[in-house]
Every structure is written in C-alpha cells, then in structure tokens.
C-alpha cells in the first residue's frame, strides 16, 4: 500500500510525493523536496511551484507546508533568480520568482504565526530586492503584497521597517506604478513579455484581455503599495517621510479605479494620517488635498465616510481647524442631515456637534473666521433648533407651513416652465424656508429642483451642494436618482470625472431598480444621455490617462480613443450639463412624493 506506482519520469516529483498514502513518508519527502529544489537545475521546476501557488491560494491557513520549510525554499528560489540570470532564462524558470513571492504573500495574509515563521526564514531581503525592481513590475506587485502582509502584524512590522528603504520604495511605487505598467507593458502590444501575458491571462485570452488585466494589476500594484505605506503611517516616527507635499497632493487621486473598488487606496491612507496630530498638521497645509477630501466626502464613493472622518478630525483639532474651516464647513453643512453612512450612526448629529463646538471655541479665540462661513454654520444650527421646536408644534400649524411651502413651490415650477430659472430658484429657496424640517421627502424635492436651476444658471458648486443635501435627506442615503444625475452633471462642468462617473453609474443603477415610469429604463436600455456621460467620464477617469498623455498614447485632452484601442465616437462629445441640461430648461420641475400638482409630470428621461 505504501509503494507509489507511477509512470512519472521525474525522480522525487512533487506531485508524486503528494500522492504518498503514508503521512509520515509524505512529510519527509516534502521536507526533502523543499530543501533540495533551490539547488536543482532540472527542467520543469515551474510545474511544482505553480502547484504550490494554487495550494497557497486555496488553503492559506494550512500549516503543513509552513512546518516543512516552504518559506525557506521560496526565499532561496527568489535569490537564485536574482543572482543567476542564466538559470532564470532557462526553460520556464522566469515564472518562479513571481510564484515564490506570491506564495509567501498568500501564506502570510491571515496568520501572524505564519508571518513570524516567514521572517525567521529570511524572506524579507529577497522580497525587498524584488521591490527595488530588480526584475520587473510583475514581481514588484507580488513583493509589495507580501511585504504589506508582513508589515500588518505587530510582531513582524519591525523586521520590515528595519529595511529602511522599504517605505521610500513603496512611496515611489505608489506614485509611479500606473506609469510603469503603462510604459513597460500596456503601451506597446508587440513588446509585451510573453510570461507577463501568460501570468495576466493564464493563457486564456488575447490582447484585449491582457490589456484589461494589466489595468487591474496596475491598480493592485498601486493599492498594495498604499497598504504597505499605511502600516508605517500608524507610527508617528514615519509620518515625516510619508507626509511630503508632493505625495499628499496626489493621494486623493489614487482611488483604485472601477477595477479595484474594494481598496480604500489613497483616501484610506489619508484617514490613517489624519488620526495623528502630526499627520493632520501636514494635511492641513495642502489646500489641494483638503479640496479633494471635500469632493470625496460629498461623493457616492464607497469610501466617502473615510473622507468625512478626515474633515471632522481636522475641524476638531485646535491646531488645524482655523486653517481648513472655510473649505471644510460648507461640505460638512451639506452632509449635516445624513443619518447613517457605513458604520456611522447619526453622522449628521455628529457633524452638527463638531461645528457647534468649533463655534463656541472660536468665540474665545483671536483667530478670525470668514463671515460667510460663520453665517452658514449659524444657519445650520438655527435649522436644527427649528427641528426641535417642530416636535412640540401643533399638527395644524405644521400642515399650514407645509401647505404654504407647496404653494410657493408650485410658483417655482411655473417660473421654471416659463424659462425664468433664476426666479424659480428663488421660489424654491422660499419654499425651503417654509417647509417643515421634518418633511424630509418634500425637502429632497426642493433641494433637487433648486440644484437643477443652479445647473442651468451655470453654478455647479451650488448645484453640487443642493444635490448632496437632497441625497443626504433621502432614504436610503445617496440613492435619489434625479439628484445623482444632477450632481453628475455639475461634477462634469467642473471637470471632476471620477465623481461624475460614480454618480452617473449609481443613477443608472437606481433607474434599473425604480418603479417610477419617469425613471425606469425603457426596454432595459440605458438612456443615451447617461451612456454618453458614462463613456466620457470613463475615458477621462481612465487609470492610465496621465501616463498615456505623458507617453503619447493620448494625442489631446479630448480624445482617449487611441489609448483605449477603440474607434472614436463619430458624434462630438457633449457634456450632459451643456446638452441635456439645456433641453431641460423649458421643462417642468420635479413634483414628487406627497406634493402632486395638477397631474402634469415631467418625462425624466428627456428633462432631468
């Protein structure tokens, strides 16, 4: 029973060893295999390594191979590839350093005990050499992944940090990864390394799939670099090296793209930085970073709450609040009616408390506050006081206020239909002043209507503010389709492609689930105007766009078709804010929820 019957031509074949029925014999054979493999020069070595890669991916918490020396073996194989280029070029050995680093990363991503064993096995030095770029970006990707896992654990972080260049290399890689992958792989199809193509597609795809996977891997390379930096950012002694102005200004733009939406990327690192007083001091000195955080905080980004955290902490810090309050306060005020966001409960109440405390502290401070900022915060506090008073107000009085607001709103609708957009905006403002604070559905419509007016008046910042307020009041949060579309148009007017793209995609998603005939997709077809905007913003927010512009892949700001390898659209690209919004100018304003007018409703697909 113990004897292995095999026709395998390779003595000591790993796959044959794994078929051994006797556990003790199998362990002994595997131990021998791991010890001897790095010193062998036989053909076919990549086969057992790829098998181990599959095993590590499928069973990363299994200790069997850890106890038998897999980390020592993988470290030795990486060193062999770095030092012996003749061996590396022989047969299919070029794949081995990649697989070896990936195996180390897989076995260390969940178990601190395994990470400790890996460090003792000496995996860090060869991983650092791969991180330096001694081979290619493909090996850099798996090395930064493995080092990021090792840096996650308190017991193994010091071993990573002892290699002082790791942090600097990770910062360089986060900043340049997209350009590296574009210029070294994506740009020139005929120069792509064969083993890169095989690793990207597993031999199952052509040029188009290679390009798609390259974008995904480039995003991972950047995001995993940021994850490694994030481990250092929790330690105050490293913040000075991380918080360089040229790096902080780039961080909000490192967002992972649609291909890597599960990573908080740049905003996640900024959140870690802002947890420290030292970090907040650095961030507060970069106005562009504050502006970007405000945009993310207002957006429908999955990591919106992280940007909100940063803004709240900056306002709560006495040493940074006066530097940022004029930029941050309008954003926080727009978000003050939000209820739940992620794990946040009663986020709006937290925001109000933070701004109220700021006002109290600023009264005792010599620092000056912009008069407009002070008035906007005061107005917010008054509105919250009105909400409290409404709780004790007779229902009849509330109904009177609601009816009065409805009358004014209908006047605004009439002005909007006649083309008096400025007059309509004023009426919606009057209706908001009359409308009870607790009438959330009605206020959603009023804010959204006024946002549409501001769009047509070419006031995108005001439109974003009102659309955001409507989205915060809506239940569920960030799911009011018309406000999403209007904010997408406003972001488009400001050239904020990522924010516009996310809102446009979410708008389409809401339309697909809506029972409202004005919103639901006709014959499951995405409206042409929404499709146009999404395509435009996908090109503008393309991960490789800056690299392509730099290296000649995109010939002008308005045309990314060459870089995508697609034919350009025959029609001239229009911004939704210019084309569809202009068509809206003579249409009806929204009239939703309990507030019905005489039954004349707008056709959303034509007018919003």
UniProtKB/TrEMBL annotation:
Matching Gene3D superfamilies: Leucine-rich Repeat Variant, Tetratricopeptide repeat domain
Composition-biased stretches (Acidic residues): 567-582
Biased composition range(s): Basic and acidic residues: 583-608
Entry-linked Pfam families: ARM_7 (PF26524)
Domain ARM repeat N-terminal plant: 6-244
Stored InterPro entries: ARM-like (IPR011989), ARM-type_fold (IPR016024), ARM_7 (IPR058868), TPR-like_helical_dom_sf (IPR011990)
Top-level taxonomic group: Eukaryota
Region: Disordered, residue numbers: 559-608
PANTHER family: ARM-REPEAT/TETRATRICOPEPTIDE REPEAT (TPR)-LIKE PROTEIN, ARM-REPEAT_TETRATRICOPEPTIDE REPEAT (TPR)-LIKE PROTEIN
Protein name: ARM repeat N-terminal plant domain-containing protein
Organism ancestry: Eukaryota, Viridiplantae, Streptophyta, Embryophyta, Tracheophyta
């Amino acid at each position: 029973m113990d004897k292995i019957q095999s026709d395998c031509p390779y003595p000591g074949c790993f796959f044959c060893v794994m078929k051994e029925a006797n556990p003790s014999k199998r362990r002994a054979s595997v131990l021998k295999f791991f010890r001897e493999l790095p010193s062998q020069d036989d053909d076919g070595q990549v086969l057992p390594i790829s098998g181990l890669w599959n095993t590590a991916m499928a069973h990363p918490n299994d200790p069997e191979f850890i106890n038998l020396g897999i980390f020592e073996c993988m470290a030795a194989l990486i060193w062999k590839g770095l030092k012996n280029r003749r061996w590396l070029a022989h047969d299919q050995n070029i794949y081995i350093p990649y697989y070896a680093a990936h195996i180390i990363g897989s076995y260390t991503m969940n178990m601190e005990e395994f990470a400790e064993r890996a460090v003792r096995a000496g995996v860090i030095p060869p991983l650092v050499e791969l991180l330096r770029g001694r081979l290619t970006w493909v090996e850099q990707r798996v090395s930064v992944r493995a080092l990021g896992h090792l840096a996650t654990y308190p017991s193994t972080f010091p071993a990573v940090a002892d290699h002082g260049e790791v942090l600097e290399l990770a910062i360089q890689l986060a900043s340049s990864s997209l350009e590296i992958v574009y210029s070294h792989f994506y740009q020139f199809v005929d120069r792509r390394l064969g083993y890169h193509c095989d690793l990207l597609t597993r031999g199952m795809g052509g040029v188009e799939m290679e390009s798609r996977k390259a974008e995904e891997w480039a995003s991972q390379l950047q995001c995993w670099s940021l994850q490694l930096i994030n481990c250092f950012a929790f330690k105050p002694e490293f913040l000075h090296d991380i918080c360089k102005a040229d790096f902080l200004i780039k961080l909000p733009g490192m967002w992972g793209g649609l291909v890597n939406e599960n990573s908080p990327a740049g905003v996640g690192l900024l959140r870690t930085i802002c947890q420290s007083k030292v970090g907040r001091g650095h961030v507060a000195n970069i106005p562009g970073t504050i502006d970007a955080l405000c945009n993310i905080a207002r957006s429908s980004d999955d990591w919106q709450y992280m940007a909100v955290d940063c803004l709240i902490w900056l306002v709560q810090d006495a040493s940074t609040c006066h530097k940022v309050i004029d930029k941050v306060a309008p954003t926080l005020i727009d978000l003050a009616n939000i209820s739940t966001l992620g794990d946040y409960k009663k986020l709006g109440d937290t925001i109000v408390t933070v701004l109220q405390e700021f006002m109290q502290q600023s009264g005792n401070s010599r620092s000056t506050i912009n008069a407009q900022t002070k008035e906007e915060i005061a107005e917010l506090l008054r509105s919250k006081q009105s909400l409290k008073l409404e709780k004790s107000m007779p229902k009849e009085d509330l109904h009177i206020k609601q009816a009065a607001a409805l009358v004014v709103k209908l006047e605004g609708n009439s002005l909007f239909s006649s083309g008096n957009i400025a007059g309509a905006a004023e009426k919606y403002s009057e209706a908001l002043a009359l409308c009870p604070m607790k009438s959330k559905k009605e206020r959603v419509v009023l804010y959204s209507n006024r946002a549409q007016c501001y769009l047509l008046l070419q006031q995108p910042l005001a439109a974003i503010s009102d659309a955001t307020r409507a989205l915060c009041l809506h239940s569920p949060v960030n799911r009011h389709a018309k406000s999403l579309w209007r904010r997408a148009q406003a972001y488009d007017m400001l050239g904020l492609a990522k924010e516009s793209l996310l809102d446009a995609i979410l708008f389409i998603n809401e339309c697909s689930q809506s029972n409202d005939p004005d919103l639901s997709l006709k014959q499951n077809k995405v409206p042409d105007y929404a499709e146009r905007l999404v395509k435009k913003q996908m090109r503008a927010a393309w991960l490789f766009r800056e690299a392509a512009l730099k290296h000649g892949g995109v010939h002008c700001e308005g045309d990314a078709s060459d870089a995508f390898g697609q034919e350009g659209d025959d029609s001239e690209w229009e911004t939704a804010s210019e084309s569809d919004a202009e068509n809206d100018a003579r249409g009806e304003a929204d009239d939703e929820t309990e507030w019905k007018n005489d039954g004349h409703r707008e056709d959303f697909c034509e007018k919003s």
